Amino acid sequence: MRSRALQTASRRAALPRPSTSPPIRLASNLSQRPHSDNVSFPGALKSAFSNKLAFQHPQEWTALPTYRVVDQHGAVVDPTWTPDIPEEKIVKLYTDMLYISILDIIMFDAQRQGRVSFYMVSAGEEAASVGTSSVLEMEDTLFCQYREQGVFRERGFTTKQFMSQLFANKNDPGKGRQMPVHYGSTELNIHTISSTLGTQLPHAAGHAYAQKMRKLQNPESKSAVTAAFFGEGAASTGDFHAALNIAATRSCPIIFICRNNGFAISTPTLDQYRGDGIASRGIGYGIDTIRVDGNDIWAAREAVKRARELALEDGGKPVLIEAMTYRVSHHSTSDDSFAYRARVEVEDWKRRDNPLTRLRKWMEANGMWDDVKEKDARDVMRKEILKGISESEKEKRPPLKAMFDDTYEELTPDLKEQMRKLREIIEKYPDEYDVSEYEGGLESLKEKK
């Protein structure tokens, strides 16, 4: 019986079936033409034949240019550029950058006081995050790394939301499961940040491919792209290369935004790679690429605005932006950057090419800002952030039961048993485990009938 069934299945499998997959491109489509002057082969379709043996030497190639709109002094250097947003929007972009710079200083100090366990600042990189975010649509899905506070703020992340995550209280959507600065927001269409470098990149490429498939199934749906943020250190991971390759070969509508801030923790760029930055890698994968001055918010906006148009052309394609923006801060509160770079180098960057100062000079030259507005804005934001810290510290932590939730639709028997044993231990040693700071206390661990 079993043998006859297998024979029947084999015969059925051998029958021709209607194809539902796209036609396969035959190798003959790329065959070498007689007497051709070029190579006709996948990956080198227009490579001219040469009778001269010559290796290509990287040092003989000119580095890719860096696009900027406004220089360090706030002067416009692109004569074709004019602001595309009204004054109130420009002021908002500046105050978003200012907010992040103040938040970073206060939270860095809060970590040193032992009020939070960890923090990462984005000093020097505010324009790269706020500027890029400001021209993306809310329908565009974002995958951030851990220095995109400006992206969250520009999209509408509130002080309470920042603090709830940083202090891991009951209002934290992540329920205290992530370490500080690993924000996420379903409402703002931003995936939760992961500590592991580069893992967001193949996820983002896959998401962009899904966007493309949805658009093919429903052409009337609104067009959207994916934006993936990362540092040049993450570009040394295998995930970076896998993401760019699948995005290029599948023509995914995605913008890869690299913050090249000069250091991967304590490793300077000269020790990370020998090529022409990260932008040259995009070209190697056949991806439209640009390098911009990451301290110039206008250059960041113009680049992403055009990149979004390109990403949606012809059904979708990837774009890579490399934003050059020096990291003036320590890598994190666990790092002392003066152990591997000179203090004077950092101070020079702060003084000579600060992204906030650059935008402020331009705004002052155009009558949008002055010292009084600066002082008032700083005072308001500082009070708001300090109040947010005070209020968040008073909130209870997520219920203990939250550590067992959300893996399965319903608690499995083994999770219920783990929860029961945890409750017994806490009940047995109440002086060792104070659970009063958790929402619901010990009651949250009792299984509801």
From TrEMBL:
It is found in: Mitochondrion matrix. GO terms for cellular component: mitochondrial matrix. Pfam families: E1_dh. Coiled coil: none annotated. The keyword Metal-binding applies. The keyword Transit peptide applies. One of its GO terms (molecular function) is metal ion binding. Residues 1-35 are annotated as: Disordered. Keywords: Metal-binding, Mitochondrion, Oxidoreductase, Potassium, Thiamine pyrophosphate, Transit peptide. The lineage of its organism: Eukaryota, Fungi, Dikarya, Ascomycota, Pezizomycotina. This is 2-oxoisovalerate dehydrogenase subunit alpha. GO terms for biological process: branched-chain amino acid catabolic process. Its cofactor is thiamine diphosphate. Residues 1-10 have a biased composition (Polar residues). Its EC number is 1.2.4.4. Belongs to the BCKDHA family. It catalyses: N(6)-[(R)-lipoyl]-L-lysyl-[protein] + 3-methyl-2-oxobutanoate + H(+) = N(6)-[(R)-S(8)-2-methylpropanoyldihydrolipoyl]-L-lysyl-[protein] + CO2. Residues 96-399 form the Dehydrogenase E1 component domain. The branched-chain alpha-keto dehydrogenase complex catalyzes the overall conversion of alpha-keto acids to acyl-CoA and CO(2). It contains multiple copies of three enzymatic components: branched-chain alpha-keto acid decarboxylase (E1), lipoamide acyltransferase (E2) and lipoamide dehydrogenase (E3). It is an enzyme of class 1 (oxidoreductase).
